[in-house]
């Protein structure tokens, strides 16, 4: 009985160690792998690695290229997606259900930091209620960057205000100003007007602006070439060569744990490669039309998770800050997951169609949102409401028809 219990405890501890190593390794960007293994090698006598950086660095012929390589490498910063993803844990999201909904919400946050998804659709996907989805979205007001997950500028300011420690009177007054920004001057006689406006000025607009201002050096994880045959190649250049040093016989349990950890890291590095490779193969297979010049098809992480045999949250971590380079350019793995508007029609395809219509519209009579609705319904033989088209237009950063007409007059 005792030996069985000890075996179970050992296996459980081993599994916990592997998971602790596995998830960060899977989520890490390819250019960060060397730093991860370098850190492990400092306190593990059995782990030895050869820097991938050295071979990449030596292959660059000129000193200018070398300095450019170093400079570009230093420009990288954590993405908005990763920043938020790392916060989707307890205590704000304590249950599997709340975490699942939070991940779905994250998938529907645009580059400005605003939520652009459909609460009802997320509720259906997660088998819960609209009210629960909305309650989870409201918890995003406690995340960084402040204002993330809000619906618009007003709610973004409200989210940011909720994180400030100010007295009730000032809080209520700032709330009033936020709701009436266009008529802010009418409050100028209020005795706390200057304090309130200084607070509003400090709010970030849009909430993800800090993630848009800095340049980033993107390293592709995979190269996809679609010709007569399909070629999917992993970017081996940034994978360090890992070696297990010759183990010596020892009864020291701590050293045995270090040896096991070293072996686990080697195996998990290979597992990372195979998992991401299988994931990219599925993406390429399901989105083949995109790689030959067509539009993205509806595809969710839940579908891919079922096919690859992982939890949806693991797929979410796996696609985090991973990129494919192909003939059409550089694309994040996350961008290949798009919501379905109908059975075989993605929101990305409709957005691209709207973009093309507007780019080729008559400058004298720009297309209204109702015109766009009618043309979308006619092209795709489906029902759609105007507010959906308006939302898509705003996501494309396209002004209204009246505003575009004014712009055209000045430009033309």
From TrEMBL:
<keyword id="KW-0804">Transcription</keyword>
<dbReference type="Pfam" id="PF00309">
    <property type="entry name" value="Sigma54_AID"/>
</dbReference>
<dbReference type="GO" id="GO:0000428">
    <property type="term" value="C:DNA-directed RNA polymerase complex"/>
</dbReference>
<dbReference type="GO" id="GO:0003677">
    <property type="term" value="F:DNA binding"/>
</dbReference>
<dbReference type="InterPro" id="IPR007634">
    <property type="entry name" value="RNA_pol_sigma_54_DNA-bd"/>
</dbReference>
<protein>
    <submittedName>
        <fullName>RNA polymerase factor sigma-54</fullName>
    </submittedName>
</protein>
<dbReference type="GO" id="GO:0016987">
    <property type="term" value="F:sigma factor activity"/>
</dbReference>
<dbReference type="Pfam" id="PF04552">
    <property type="entry name" value="Sigma54_DBD"/>
</dbReference>
<dbReference type="InterPro" id="IPR000394">
    <property type="entry name" value="RNA_pol_sigma_54"/>
</dbReference>
<keyword id="KW-0238">DNA-binding</keyword>
<keyword id="KW-0731">Sigma factor</keyword>
<feature type="domain" description="RNA polymerase sigma factor 54 DNA-binding">
    <location>
        <begin position="253"/>
        <end position="406"/>
    </location>
</feature>
<keyword id="KW-0548">Nucleotidyltransferase</keyword>
<keyword id="KW-0808">Transferase</keyword>
<dbReference type="Pfam" id="PF04963">
    <property type="entry name" value="Sigma54_CBD"/>
</dbReference>
<dbReference type="InterPro" id="IPR007046">
    <property type="entry name" value="RNA_pol_sigma_54_core-bd"/>
</dbReference>
<keyword id="KW-0240">DNA-directed RNA polymerase</keyword>
<dbReference type="InterPro" id="IPR038709">
    <property type="entry name" value="RpoN_core-bd_sf"/>
</dbReference>
<keyword id="KW-0805">Transcription regulation</keyword>
<comment type="similarity">
    <text>Belongs to the sigma-54 factor family.</text>
</comment>
<dbReference type="GO" id="GO:0006352">
    <property type="term" value="P:DNA-templated transcription initiation"/>
</dbReference>
<feature type="domain" description="RNA polymerase sigma factor 54 core-binding">
    <location>
        <begin position="70"/>
        <end position="245"/>
    </location>
</feature>
<dbReference type="GO" id="GO:0016779">
    <property type="term" value="F:nucleotidyltransferase activity"/>
</dbReference>
<dbReference type="GO" id="GO:0001216">
    <property type="term" value="F:DNA-binding transcription activator activity"/>
</dbReference>
């Amino acid at each position: 009985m005792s030996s069985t219990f000890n075996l179970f405890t050992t296996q459980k501890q081993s599994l916990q160690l592997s998971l602790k190593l596995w998830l960060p390794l899977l989520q890490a960007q390819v250019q960060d792998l060397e730093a991860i293994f370098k850190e492990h090698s400092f306190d593990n006598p059995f782990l030895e690695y050869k820097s991938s950086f050295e071979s990449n660095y030596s292959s660059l012929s000129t000193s200018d290229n070398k300095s450019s390589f170093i400079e570009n490498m230093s420009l990288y910063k954590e993405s908005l997606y990763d920043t938020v993803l790392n916060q989707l844990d307890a205590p704000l999201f304590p249950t599997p259900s709340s975490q699942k909904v939070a991940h779905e919400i994250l998938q529907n946050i645009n580059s400005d930091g605003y939520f652009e998804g459909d609460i009802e659709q997320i509720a259906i996907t997660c088998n819960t209620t609209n009210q629960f989805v909305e309650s989870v979205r409201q918890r995003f007001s406690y995340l960084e960057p402040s204002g993330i997950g809000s619906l618009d500028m007003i709610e973004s300011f409200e989210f940011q205000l909720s994180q400030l420690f100010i007295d009730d009177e000032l809080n209520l007054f700032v709330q009033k100003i936020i709701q009436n920004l266009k008529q802010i001057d009418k409050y100028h006689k209020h005795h706390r007007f200057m304090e309130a406006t200084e607070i509003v000025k400090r709010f970030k607009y849009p909430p993800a602006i800090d993630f848009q201002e800095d340049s980033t050096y993107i390293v592709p994880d995979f190269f996809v070439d679609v010709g007569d045959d399909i070629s999917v190649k992993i970017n081996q250049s940034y994978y360090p060569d890992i070696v297990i040093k010759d183990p010596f016989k020892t009864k020291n349990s701590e050293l045995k744990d270090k040896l096991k950890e070293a072996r686990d890291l080697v195996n998990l590095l290979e597992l990372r490669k195979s998992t991401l490779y299988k994931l990219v193969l599925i993406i390429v297979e399901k989105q083949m039309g995109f790689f030959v010049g067509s539009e993205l098809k509806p595809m969710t992480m839940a579908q891919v998770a079922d096919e690859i045999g992982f939890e949806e949250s693991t797929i979410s971590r796996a696609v985090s800050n991973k990129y494919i380079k192909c003939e059409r350019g550089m694309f994040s793995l996350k961008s290949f997951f798009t919501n379905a508007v109908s059975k075989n029609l993605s929101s990305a395809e409709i957005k691209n169609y709207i973009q093309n219509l507007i780019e080729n519209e008559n400058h004298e009579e720009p297309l209204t949102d109702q015109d766009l609705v009618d043309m979308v319904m006619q092209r795709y033989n489906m029902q759609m409401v105007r507010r959906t088209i308006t939302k898509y237009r705003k996501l494309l950063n396209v002004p209204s028809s009246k505003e575009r007409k004014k712009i055209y007059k000045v430009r033309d």
